[in-house]
C-alpha cells in the first residue's frame, strides 16, 4: 500500500478527492478476486501507469485496472484517470448532479458497478477456463505394470492437451503432451481422487494423475470431460480478461476453432503468434477493442471464418487478400467507411458482414466478389442505393435495415436477390417487383401505404406494422407459405389466397377487415389463421376440406360461429373467439360420437349462457377451457364429468354459485380459476394430485374444508374477497403464493365511521405457462410522512429473482431519495439508478422492466393538490383514466425511438434482426443488464400529473398485460368495476383469455379526488376532503383519575387507532396519519381551542384533512425512549391465540403502556357550541360512568390491536411486506434482501425518542383477557405515584413531549 501511494505521488495526484494518508487499500468483496481493490477516491486523479505489466516495471509499482459490472477487468491507459473514469461512468448511467455523482462514487456498493484494482485481479472461474495446473503424483502406462512408478510431476491442462513435465524444469525441460480430443478421462476406483487421461488413436497413451483432494479431482474431471467430448479441436477463451495468449495454448497444434471474443488482446503484440496454429480455420476476435486490424492473422492461410466485429476498426489493410480460403468475414460494429480493392482477391468469400459501420455508399469492390451470396449492410448511412453496375452479382441475401435508402426505379434490379430485408427504414412506398426472383421479403415497421411484389418465387412475406391498404402480388404466389400483414389498414384480402396451395400461416391481425374470402377456410394447406382485432361480423360457411389447426378470431363483432365449424374442421386444435358477441357455440357432432380434436378453447368476454355448456361435451380432448366474463349461472355436473382430459379451466366473472363436484373426474386438472362469481361452497379440487393453482377470490365463501394433505404441486391459492371466510390450516404456509383476507377488527356501535379514501388499490399476479412467476407488484397505501402512496409493477421476463428484489428494495430506496431531493424527476431517476447498483450488489447480471407511481401532497404548499409521479423503464407501463379516456403515464424505450437509436449507435452497439441490442433485450432503458452499458441504461422516463376530480383510476401493468390488452380496452373493462382487486383480476383474466402465456401483474388504484382535496379548508370552515384513512375509526380507552389536570380535568384519554379492514377486496386498510402531521401547531407551543378538538376519526367543521389538528380522541403511538428493539424480537406468544389490550404492547423486552398527554383537554362528548362545563376533582365513579354511558367515551376492546398507521420517519420508512390478502403493507423494519440495516431511534426536539410508527404485529406483547383489568390498575397506580411527586402545572397545558411509560 505504501508503494502504491508513492507511485501515485510520483504520477501526480490532481483529483478533487485525494486519498487519506492513513487509509488502507481495501480488499475486494468478491471472493474470487485476490488482488486488492481500490475506489476512484482512493486513487485520486492519478493517471494509469505505462501499459507494461507490473512485473516488468523497474519500480515494481502496480498497474491500475478497472472492472465494470463485476465482469472483465481492463488495464487503464496512460491518459486515463480513475476518478474521471468513474465520473464519466456515472454521468452516462443517468446521474446529472455533480455533487450526487461524487456522493455515489464514495458509496461502498459502487464496486458492483465499477471497481479499480492495483494489479490485475485474479478470477478463479476464468483462470480455470484458461488452464489448470498443479504438482501431483503421476504414473504413465498401465496400472498393472510394476515397472511404472508414481512420480511427482508438473501437470497442466490447457487448450486441448494435457502437459506433463518435470517439477524442476517445468518450462525448459522435456514436456509430454497428450492430446485429449476424442480421448477419454476416467475415474480410477482403486485409487482415491485419481483420474486416467487417455488420448485417441491406435497409439494412445494413458497418464494417471492422483489429486490431493476431491475438489481438485472434480475440477480437473469437469474441465477434461469438456475437451474429450468435442468432435472438433476447439478452445473457448471468451470473457477471460486476456491481455495476451497463454503460452501453453500453443501446444495444441491441432487447434481448428479458437474463440477469443470479449477480451483485451492487443493487435500488434498479443496476436503475433497466432500464425503458429497451422490448422486454424475459425477465429473469433470480436469485442476486443483492437483499434486496428491485426495483420498477423492475414498470414494464416487456413482461415475460413474470421469475426472482427466491435473492435473500433477504421480500415482494412490490403494484406487481407492473402486469406484466399476465407468464406465468412464479419466486420460489424466498427468505423469502416471503405474496403480495399484487394478484398476482391478472395474467390471463396460468400458472407460479408458490414452492419453498423459508417459506409455512405456501397463499396465498389463488391463488383469483384462474384461468390458473395449474403451481404449485410444494416445500420449504415446509405442515402441512395446505387447498384446499377452490380447486375451480374450473384448476391442472394441483402440486409439493409436502418439504412434510410431509396430503391432506384429500373427493371431487373439485382435479379439474383432472393432474400431482402428492409425493416425499420421509414419507407413510404416500395415496389419490390424490381426483384424478379424474390423469395422472402422483410419490410416490417415502415410507413408503407401500398406494396407491390412479384409472386413467381415468393415464399414468405413479412410486412407487419405498416399502413398498407393495398396489396398487389402478381402473378399469384404459388409457393407462398407464410404471410404476415398484421397491424395494417387492409379492408379486404385478395381472392388468390384461397387458391394458394402451400400457404400454411396467414396473419391478418389488427386490420380493418369486415369479411374473409368465402373459400379461405376451405384451403387444404392453411394450418394457422390469425384474424383477430378486425371488424368481422360473420365467418365463411364453407369449410369442406379444411385442415385448419389454429383459428384466432378474437376482438371482432361475431355473434355466431359457422354451424359446421367443429363438424368439418376436425383438425382444429385451438380456437380463440374471445371478445366477440357470441351467445352460443356450434355443436361438436350430430351424434354421440365426435371426431373433434379441439384441445384449447378461449371464449372469454362474450355473451354465452348456460345453453352453451352441453355443446362442450363433445370435445373429449379439450385441455384448456376459458369461459370467463360471460353470463353463465351454472355448469352442470354431468357435463363437466365428460371433460376428463381438462387441465385448465377459467370460469371467472360469471354468476356461478358452485363448481360441479364432478370436476374430480378431471384427473389432469392443474388450474381452476373462478374468481368474481357467487360461489358459496369450496370445490373439492384439493383432492386432485396435479393441482397447482386455485383462484376463488371475490366470491361468497364462508367455510373451506381442506384435506390434511394438500396437493404436492400446489403453488397458488387465492381466497381474498371472501369477507365471511375463516380458514385455518397448518400446511398453508408451504404454498408459494397464498392469499386470504385478514379478519376485520370488531368495532363498537358508537364509533365514528372512517372517512372515504382518496385512493384504494387492488393487485394480482399470475404465473405463465411454465408456472414461473416472473413478475411482482408493490403497493403501499400509506408511504412516507406527507400523505403519500407508492405502487409498482416489476417484470423480469423469464427471470424470477429480479422482480422480487425490486419489489423488496425499491420502496426503501425511494424513501431515502425523498430526503435528498424534492424534485420529482430527480428523486425518481435517482431511485432507479441506485437500484441498479443494488442489483449489482446482489450479483444479478440479468434485468427487468419496472414502473413506479408515487402519489404525494406537498406539505409546504397548503393550496396544493395531490400529484402523481410515474417513472418507468422497459415494457412495464401505467395509464391514467381521466374522463373515461386513457392518459399514458409511461413511454417505451426501444431502438424504434430516434433518440434511443442514435444513442445506441453512438456507443457502437449492434441491433440484431430481432430488434434487440446486441441480441439481448429490445429495451434500451431497463433495470439490470449492466454488461450492456452504456448502450442500455436504467435511466427512467419520469412524468408528473396533478390529480383532478376527473381522474377515476390508474393502472400499472407488466409487459404481457399491455401486449394483450390495449389501454383503451383496459380502461373500458374496469371502469365500472367497483372493487379494485376485482378490476385487477379482470385485466389479467382478459389477457390470459386473449392468449397471453406469460407472467402477468396488474395494479388498479381507484381515485376519489374531490375539489376540496386541492385546497386547505382550515380557514374556510368546510368539512375535510376524503383521505386515505387519515382518521380511521378509533377505539378509545379512557383511564380515570390518572393525573390531576391543571384545571378541573381528572382524566387522560388514550387511544389506539385500528385500521378498518374493508370487506371490499382490493381496498387496503388505511393507516393512521404521520406523527409530524398530527401536531403541527402543538410542537410550536400553541394550544388548540376546544372547538377544534372533535372526538372520532371523521373530522368535523373546522378541521382540515391536509392539516389535521390534535384531537382529544386521537393518539399517535410512540415507543418509549427507554428501550428499542428490532422487529424480529420474539415475545414467545402467539398473536393468533391471545387477545391484545389497547394501549399496551411490547418491544420484545418489556411491557409498555401508552398514555396520551399531548392534549390534556380530553373530552368524552362531541363538541358543541356551548362552553364546556367545568369539572371538579371530587366527582364520583358513578357520575363518571353515567357520563361515559351517555357520551360513549369507552369503546370495546378490540380482538387484536393493529399497529398504528402512518409512515415512519425519514430513516425508518421501508417498503413493507405482504399481507394476508396479497397486498403489501408498510412495516417498521426493512426486510431487504440486498441489505438489512438496523434503524436507530431518532432524537426529537421535544425531548423523547420515537421508534418506527408501525410496530410489526409479530412484535407486540399480547395480554390475555384475564389480565386486562390488572394492567389497567397498574397504569392507574403508576400515574397516581407521579401525581404525588409532581405538582399541578399553573398553565392549562402540559409540555407536548410528555410521555408516560410503565416498565
Describe what you observe in this structure.
The protein has 1303 residues and is of the alpha/beta class. 13% of the residues lie in helices and 18% in strands. It has 17 helices and 55 strands. It has a 23-stranded parallel beta sheet, with no helix packed on it. It has a seven-stranded antiparallel beta sheet with strand order 8-7-6-5-11-10-9. A five-stranded antiparallel beta sheet has the order 38-47-46-43-44. The two termini are 53 Å apart. InterPro entries: Leu-rich_rpt (IPR001611), Leu-rich_rpt_typical-subtyp (IPR003591), LRR_dom_sf (IPR032675), LRR_domain-containing (IPR050216), PH_domain (IPR001849), PPM-type-like_dom_sf (IPR036457), PPM-type_phosphatase-like_dom (IPR001932), RA_PHLPP-like (IPR055071). It is found in: Cytoplasm; Membrane; Nucleus. Keywords: Cytoplasm, Hydrolase, Leucine-rich repeat, Manganese, Membrane, Metal-binding, Nucleus, Phosphoprotein, Protein phosphatase, Repeat.
What can be said about this structure in brief?
This protein is an alpha/beta fold. 13% of the residues lie in helices and 18% in strands.
Question: Notable features of this structure?
Answer:
1303 residues, alpha/beta, 23-stranded parallel beta sheet, 17 helices, 18% strand
The amount of helix comes to 10-25%
Helix count equals 17
User: Quick one: overall form?
Assistant: globular
User: What profile does the largest beta sheet have?
Assistant: 23 strands, parallel
Mean pLDDT across every amino acid position: 75
Alpha carbon gap, first and last residue:
53 Å
What share of the residues does DSSP label as strand, in percent?
15-25%
In the predicted model, the low-confidence regions spanning at least 5 consecutive residues are 1-36, 44-59, 744-755, 1016-1260, 1289-1303
Q: Look at the helices and sheets and give the structural class.
A: alpha/beta
Total strand segments: 55
> Compute the gyration radius: what is it?
37 Å
Amino acid at each position: 500500500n505504501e508503494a502504491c501511494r508513492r507511485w501515485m505521488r510520483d504520477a501526480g495526484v490532481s483529483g478533487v478527492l485525494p486519498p487519506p494518508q492513513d487509509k488502507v487499500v481495501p480488499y475486494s468483496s468478491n471472493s474470487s478476486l485476490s488482488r486488492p481493490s481500490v475506489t476512484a477516491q482512493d486513487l485520486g486523479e492519478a493517471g494509469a501507469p505505462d501499459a507494461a505489466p507490473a512485473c516488468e516495471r523497474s519500480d515494481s509499482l502496480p498497474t491500475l485496472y478497472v472492472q465494470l459490472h463485476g465482469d472483465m477487468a481492463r488495464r487503464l491507459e496512460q491518459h486515463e484517470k480513475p476518478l474521471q473514469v468513474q465520473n464519466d461512468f456515472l454521468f452516462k448511467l443517468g446521474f446529472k448532479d455533480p455533487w450526487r455523482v461524487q456522493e455515489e462514487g464514495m458509496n461502498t456498493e459502487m464496486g458492483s458497478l465499477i471497481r479499480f484494482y492495483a494489479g490485475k485481479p485474479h478470477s478463479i472461474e476464468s483462470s480455470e477456463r484458461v488452464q489448470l495446473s498443479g504438482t501431483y503424483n503421476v504414473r504413465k502406462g498401465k496400472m498393472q505394470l510394476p515397472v511404472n512408478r508414481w512420480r511427482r510431476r508438473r501437470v497442466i491442462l490447457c487448450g486441448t492437451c494435457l502437459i506433463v513435465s518435470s517439477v524442476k524444469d517445468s518450462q525448459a525441460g522435456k514436456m509430454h503432451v497428450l492430446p485429449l480430443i476424442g480421448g477419454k478421462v476416467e475415474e480410477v476406483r482403486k485409487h482415491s481422487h485419481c483420474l486416467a487421461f487417455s488420448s485417441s488413436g491406435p497409439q494412445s497413451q494413458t497418464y494417471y494423475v492422483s489429486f490431493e483432494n476431491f475438489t481438485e479431482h472434480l475440477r480437473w474431471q469437469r474441465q477434461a470431460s469438456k475437451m474429450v467430448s468435442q468432435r472438433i479441436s476447439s478452445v473457448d477463451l471468451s470473457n477471460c480478461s486476456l491481455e495476451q495468449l497463454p503460452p501453453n495454448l500453443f501446444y495444441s497444434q491441432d487447434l481448428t476453432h479458437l474463440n477469443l471474443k470479449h477480451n483485451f488482446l492487443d493487435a500488434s503484440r498479443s496476436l503475433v503468434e497466432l500464425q503458429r496454429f497451422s490448422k486454424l480455420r475459425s477465429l473469433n476476435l470480436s469485442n476486443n477493442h483492437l483499434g486496428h486490424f491485426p495483420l498477423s492473422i492475414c498470414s494464416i492461410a487456413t482461415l475460413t471464418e474470421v469475426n472482427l466485429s466491435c473492435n473500433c476498426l477504421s480500415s482494412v489493410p490490403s494484406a487481407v487478400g492473402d486469406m484466399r480460403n476465407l468464406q465468412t468475414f464479419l466486420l460489424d460494429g466498427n468505423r469502416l467507411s471503405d474496403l480495399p480493392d484487394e478484398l476482391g482477391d478472395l474467390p471463396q468469400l460468400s458472407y460479408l458482414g458490414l452492419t453498423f459501420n459508417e459506409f455512405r455508399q456501397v463499396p465498389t469492390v463488391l463488383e469483384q466478389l462474384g461468390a458473395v451470396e449474403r451481404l449485410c449492410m444494416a445500420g449504415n448511412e446509405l442515402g441512395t442505393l446505387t447498384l446499377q453496375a452490380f447486375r451480374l452479382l450473384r448476391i442472394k441475401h441483402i440486409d439493409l435495415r436502418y439504412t434510410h435508402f431509396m430503391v432506384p426505379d429500373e427493371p431487373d434490379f439485382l435479379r439474383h436477390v432472393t432474400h431482402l430485408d428492409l425493416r425499420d427504414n421509414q419507407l413510404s412506398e416500395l415496389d419490390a417487383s424490381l426483384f424478379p426472383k424474390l423469395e422472402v421479403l422483410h419490410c416490417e415497421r415502415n410507413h408503407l401505404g401500398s406494396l407491390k411484389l412479384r409472386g413467381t418465387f415468393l415464399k414468405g412475406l413479412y410486412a407487419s406494422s405498416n399502413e398498407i391498404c393495398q396489396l398487389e402480388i402478381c402473378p399469384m404466389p404459388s409457393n407462398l407459405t407464410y404471410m404476415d400483414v398484421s397491424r395494417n389498414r387492409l379492408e379486404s384480402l385478395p381472392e388468390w389466397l384461397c387458391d394458394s396451395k402451400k400457404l400454411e400461416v396467414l396473419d391478418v391481425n389488427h386490420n380493418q377487415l369486415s369479411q374473409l374470402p368465402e373459400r379461405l377456410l376451405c384451403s387444404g394447406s392453411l394450418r394457422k389463421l390469425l384474424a383477430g382485432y378486425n371488424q368481422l361480423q360473420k365467418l365463411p360457411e364453407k369449410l369442406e376440406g379444411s385442415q385448419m389447426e389454429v383459428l384466432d378470431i378474437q376482438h371482432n363483432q361475431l355473434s355466431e360461429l359457422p354451424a359446421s365449424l367443429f363438424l368439418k374442421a376436425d383438425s382444429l386444435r385451438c380456437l380463440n373467439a374471445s371478445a366477440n358477441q357470441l351467445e352460443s357455440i356450434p355443436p361438436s357432432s350430430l351424434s354421440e360420437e365426435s371426431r373433434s380434436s379441439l384441445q384449447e378453447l378461449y371464449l372469454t368476454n362474450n355473451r354465452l349462457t348456460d345453453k352453451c355448456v352441453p355443446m362442450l361435451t363433445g370435445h373429449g380432448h379439450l385441455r384448456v377451457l376459458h369461459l370467463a366474463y360471460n353470463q353463465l349461472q351454472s355448469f352442470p355436473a354431468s357435463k363437466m364429468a365428460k371433460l376428463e382430459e381438462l387441465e385448465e379451466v377459467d370460469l371467472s366473472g360469471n354468476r356461478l354459485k358452485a363448481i360441479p363436484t364432478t370436476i374430480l373426474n378431471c384427473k389432469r386438472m392443474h388450474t381452476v380459476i373462478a374468481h368474481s362469481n357467487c360461489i358459496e361452497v369450496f370445490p373439492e379440487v384439493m383432492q386432485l394430485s396435479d393441482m397447482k393453482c386455485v383462484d376463488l377470490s371475490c366470491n361468497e365463501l364462508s367455510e373451506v374444508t381442506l384435506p390434511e394433505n394438500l396437493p404436492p404441486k400446489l403453488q397458488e391459492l387465492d381466497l381474498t374477497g371472501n369477507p365471511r371466510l375463516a380458514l385455518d390450516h397448518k400446511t398453508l404456509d408451504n404454498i408459494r403464493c397464498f392469499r386470504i383476507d385478514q379478519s376485520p377488527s370488531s368495532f363498537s356501535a358508537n364509533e365514528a365511521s372512517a372517512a372515504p379514501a382518496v385512493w384504494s388499490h387492488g393487485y394480482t399476479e399470475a404465473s405463465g405457462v411454465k408456472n414461473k412467476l416472473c413478475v411482482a407488484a408493490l403497493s403501499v397505501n400509506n408511504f412516507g410522512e406527507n400523505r403519500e402512496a407508492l405502487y409498482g409493477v416489476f417484470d423480469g421476463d423469464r427471470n424470477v429473482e429480479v422482480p422480487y428484489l425490486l419489489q423488496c428494495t425499491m420502496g426503501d430506496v425511494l424513501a431515502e431519495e425523498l430526503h435528498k431531493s424534492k424534485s420529482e424527476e430527480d428523486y425518481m431517476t435517482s431511485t432507479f439508478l441506485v437500484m441498479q447498483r443494488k442489483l449489482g450488489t446482489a450479483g444479478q447480471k440479468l434485468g427487468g422492466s419496472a414502473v413506479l407511481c408515487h402519489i404525494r401532497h406537498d406539505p409546504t404548499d397548503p393550496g396544493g393538490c395531490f400529484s402523481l409521479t410515474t417513472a418507468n423503464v422497459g415494457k412495464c407501463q401505467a395509464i391514467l383514466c381521466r374522463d373515461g379516456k386513457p392518459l399514458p403515464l409511461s413511454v417505451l424505450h426501444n431502438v424504434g425511438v430516434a433518440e434511443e437509436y442514435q444513442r445506441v449507435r453512438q456507443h457502437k452497439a449492434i441491433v440484431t434482426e430481432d430488434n434487440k441490442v446486441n441480441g439481448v433485450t429490445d429495451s434500451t432503458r431497463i433495470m439490470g443488464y449492466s454488461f450492456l452499458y452504456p448502450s442500455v441504461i436504467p435511466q427512467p422516463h419520469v412524468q408528473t400529473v396533478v390529480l383532478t376530480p376527473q381522474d377515476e383510476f390508474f393502472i400499472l401493468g407488466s409487459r404481457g398485460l399491455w401486449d394483450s390488452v390495449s389501454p383503451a380496452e383496459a380502461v373500458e373493462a374496469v371502469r365500472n368495476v367497483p372493487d379494485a382487486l376485482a378490476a385487477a383480476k379482470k385485466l389479467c383474466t382478459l389477457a390470459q383469455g386473449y392468449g397471453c402465456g406469460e407472467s402477468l401483474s396488474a395494479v388498479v388504484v381507484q381515485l376519489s379526488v374531490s375539489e376540496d382535496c386541492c385546497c386547505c379548508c382550515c380557514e374556510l370552515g368546510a368539512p375535510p376532503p376524503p383521505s386515505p384513512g387519515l382518521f380511521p375509526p378509533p377505539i378509545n380507552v379512557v383511564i380515570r383519575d390518572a393525573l390531576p389536570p391543571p384545571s378541573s380535568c381528572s382524566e387522560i384519554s388514550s387511544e389506539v387507532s385500528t385500521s378498518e379492514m374493508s370487506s371490499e377486496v382490493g381496498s387496503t386498510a388505511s393507516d393512521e396519519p404521520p406523527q409530524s402531521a398530527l401536531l403541527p401547531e402543538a410542537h410550536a407551543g400553541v394550544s388548540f381551542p376546544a372547538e377544534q378538538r372533535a372526538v372520532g376519526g371523521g373530522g368535523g367543521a373546522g378541521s382540515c384533512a391536509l392539516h389535521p389538528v390534535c384531537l382529544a380522541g386521537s393518539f399517535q403511538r410512540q415507543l418509549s425512549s427507554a428501550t428499542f428493539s428490532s422487529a424480529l424480537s420474539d415475545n414467545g406468544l402467539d398473536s393468533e391465540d391471545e387477545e391484545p389490550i389497547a394501549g399496551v404492547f411490547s418491544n420484545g423486552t418489556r411491557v409498555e403502556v401508552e398514555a396520551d398527554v399531548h392534549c390534556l383537554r380530553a373530552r368524552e362528548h362531541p363538541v358543541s357550541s356551548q362552553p364546556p362545563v367545568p369539572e371538579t376533582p371530587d366527582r364520583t365513579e358513578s357520575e363518571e360512568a353515567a357520563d361515559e354511558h351517555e357520551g360513549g367515551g369507552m369503546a370495546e376492546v378490540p380482538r387484536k390491536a393493529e399497529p398504528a398507521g402512518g409512515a415512519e420517519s425519514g430513516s425508518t420508512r421501508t417498503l413493507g411486506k405482504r399481507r394476508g390478502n396479497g397486498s403489501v403493507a408498510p412495516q417498521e423494519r426493512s426486510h431487504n434482501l440486498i441489505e438489512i440495516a438496523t434503524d436507530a431511534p431518532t432524537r426529537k426536539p421535544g425531548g423523547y425518542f420515537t421508534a418506527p410508527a408501525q410496530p410489526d404485529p409479530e412484535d407486540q406483547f399480547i395480554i390475555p383477557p384475564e389480565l386486562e383489568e390488572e394492567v389497567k390498575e397498574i397504569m392507574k397506580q403508576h400515574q397516581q405515584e407521579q401525581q404525588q411527586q409532581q405538582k399541578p402545572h399553573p398553565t392549562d397545558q402540559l409540555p407536548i413531549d410528555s410521555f408516560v411509560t410503565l416498565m
